[in-house]
Amino acid sequence: MKESPYKKNIAVLIHFLGWILFGSYLFIITPLSWKVDLPLEFWVKQGLMLILLLTAFYINLHFLVPRILFKNDNLKFLLIALAMGGAYIGVIFTYDILFNMAEVMHSVFRPDQPYVRRPRTFGTFDLYNLLVFYMGIGISTSVAAVRKWQTDEALRLKMEQQRINSELTYLKAQINPHFFFNTLNNIYSLTNLDIEKAQTAILKLSRMMRYVLYETEKDNTRVSKELEFIKDYIELMRLRLSEKIKLKINIPENFEEDNIAPMLLLPFIENCFKHGISSQKSSEISINIYIRDKIMVLETVNSIFSSNQSTPEGNASGIGVANTRRRLALLYDQKHELKVDDENPENEYRLHLKIKLK
């Protein structure tokens, strides 16, 4: 995955400042604290070691770790790291021999004592410099590991978002035909009872279809549009209800405008009319919607009557509600609360939904 220019510039700046602090302390400030006049050969050696550390750091960061260590070739990585440490000490050893650094530094720290040349072998290297080298290798390995974790995490999040978007698209694709199926089924029943009501229902349905066709393509819609859609649906349901069914509807007219996922409330309201109506018994359906402090609340209460499972509508029951529960979990994971009570002495289905609006 490509880094944004801003993040890339920040990373370069952090590396630059880090090396200034590290190099200044280790190769400039520490030697100056010795309070002696150090020769030019010493400062050239300090600069050479810093360049070698920089080179090893970025070779390890951009090549060895991603291409060898992350490919699970641990032994090869270890051998190359040991070889690089040996080469680093070898260069320093060669520099000391060429410029006679032992005698030069002796004259700086013990000018009043004669220099006695001692044979120096490759095995008498400076352990301190080797530890500094491998500290740099360790830091670059850690930086590469963090980078890989960040890249893998960003890729995982992107794939998870793509999976969620695909699932949401699938769920909406299921809800839309489910809604039309039930609504057309209701209109069909009206044609046998009252042609004029059926015509009115078709007009309302056409307005609702425009909402479904255009608004559900978006991730969010205005709350006012969603509530107007709910009102149209309830009015459509009124056309088929007998006097035995009492409706208590409370939907706000004025409120602060916000956004909400489209068709998120409909399946719960649709469920009231699907299971809360009986042709023989009296019943009551209560639907209450209100918004306070950016929180939308839906409360529904309806009697529970067994659906006729031999009808298409009965067989389709539960699809919309189940899908909407899943949509709530995906879209409003920690921003919603859904409580259902369908086991009470009154034999009522009670729903309480709270959604923190975006």
The span between the termini is 29 Å
What top-tier CATH class of the largest domain fits best?
A: Alpha Beta
Radius of gyration: 38 Å
Q: Could you list the spans in which at least 5 consecutive residues all have pLDDT below 50?
A: 308-317
Mean pLDDT: 80
Globular, elongated, flat, extended or rod-shaped: what is the shape? rod-shaped
Overall number of domains: 2
User: What's the main sheet like?
Assistant: 5 strands, mixed
Biggest sheet: strand arrangement: 2-4-5-7-6
Number of strands: 7
Characterization of this structure:
By secondary structure, the chain is of the alpha+beta class. The chain has 2 domains: 152 residues, no CATH class; 197 residues, Heat Shock Protein 90 (2-Layer Sandwich), CATH 3.30.565. It is built from 10 helices and 7 strands. Helix 2 packs parallel to helix 5, helix 5 packs antiparallel against helix 10 and helix 7 packs parallel to helix 8. The chain is rod-shaped. The protein starts with a helix and ends with a strand. About 3% of the residues have low confidence. One of its GO terms (molecular function) is phosphorelay sensor kinase activity. Keywords: Kinase, Membrane, Transferase, Transmembrane, Transmembrane helix. It comes from Anditalea andensis.
